[in-house]
Backbone:
């Protein structure tokens, strides 16, 4: 049975991170569903560098469904749009309460997870002034940090490592090595 993964996006989400997450987890065998958090229900999001990505569903359609993983791309102000999505925050709170996996990269660990009480001490994010200060005891020098059921990473350059670590958390170390080898990572 494949694992179900939700990847929420917004206008100005980071496209490298979004694509690394979705592509890599599909290679693992996951059913990856991209959801737009745009309040008007629009599925097409203009990403941080102008590329347009069409979501599969709206975030409202994602509520009430079961997810093995919720993985947030970063990008600014995309991460702020994710933070401001009440349905997404509700989904993330349910993941946390159930002890299920969720993760965030770039600005999203600080802007979304830390600001909503979904990230304890530790974790990492994009190393920019104003972001790290939002986090409690951020970890220095790590591209990807796993804290129980929460995975965080730094940004576009670490997106593949992040996605492979998410896959490892879902499918195990052997499968992660197999996928990494296939991807020449």
Residues:
């Amino acid at each position: 049975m494949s694992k179900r993964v939700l990847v929420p996006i917004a206008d100005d989400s980071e496209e490298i991170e979004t694509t690394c997450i979705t592509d890599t987890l599909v290679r693992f065998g996951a059913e990856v569903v991209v959801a737009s958090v745009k309040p008007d229900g629009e599925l097409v999001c203009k990403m941080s560098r102008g590329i347009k990505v069409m979501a599969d569903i709206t975030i409202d359609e994602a509520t009430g469904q079961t997810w093995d993983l919720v993985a947030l791309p970063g990008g600014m102000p995309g991460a702020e749009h994710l933070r401001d999505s009440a349905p997404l925050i509700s989904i993330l709170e349910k993941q946390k309460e159930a002890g299920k996996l969720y993760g965030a990269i770039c600005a999203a660990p600080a802007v979304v997870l830390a600001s909503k009480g979904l990230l304890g001490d530790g974790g990492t994010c994009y190393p920019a002034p104003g972001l790290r200060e939002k986090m409690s005891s951020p970890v220095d020098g790590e591209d990807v940090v796993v804290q129980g059921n929460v995975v965080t990473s730094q940004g576009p350059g670490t997106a593949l490592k992040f996605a492979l670590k998410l896959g490892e958390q879902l499918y195990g170390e052997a499968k992660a090595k197999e996928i990494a080898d296939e991807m020449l990572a």
Residues 105 and 153 are 5 Å apart (CA to CA). Strands lie at 4-9, 31-36, 44-46, 52-54, 57-58, 69-72, 101-105, 144-147, 150-153. The radius of gyration is 15 Å. The mean pLDDT is 97.
